[in-house]
Amino acid sequence: MASLLRNTLVYVWLFLVAATLFSWWAATSSSGGSQISVAVTASVLLMSFVKVRLVLTHFMEVRFAPLWLRLNCDAWLVLVIATVFGFYWSGL
Amino acid sequence: MTPAPPLAGRREHIAGERPMWFFVIGELWIFTCYFACYAYDRGQNHALYLGAQQQLNQGFGVANTIVLLTSSLLIALSVQALREGRVAAASKLLASGGACGVGFLIVKSVEWNGFFMYYYMLTGLHVLHVMLGLGILVYLGRRLKMAEGPQAVSFETGATYWHMVDLLWIIIFALLYLLR
Question: For position B7, what pLDDT does the model report?
Answer without folding.
Answer: 52
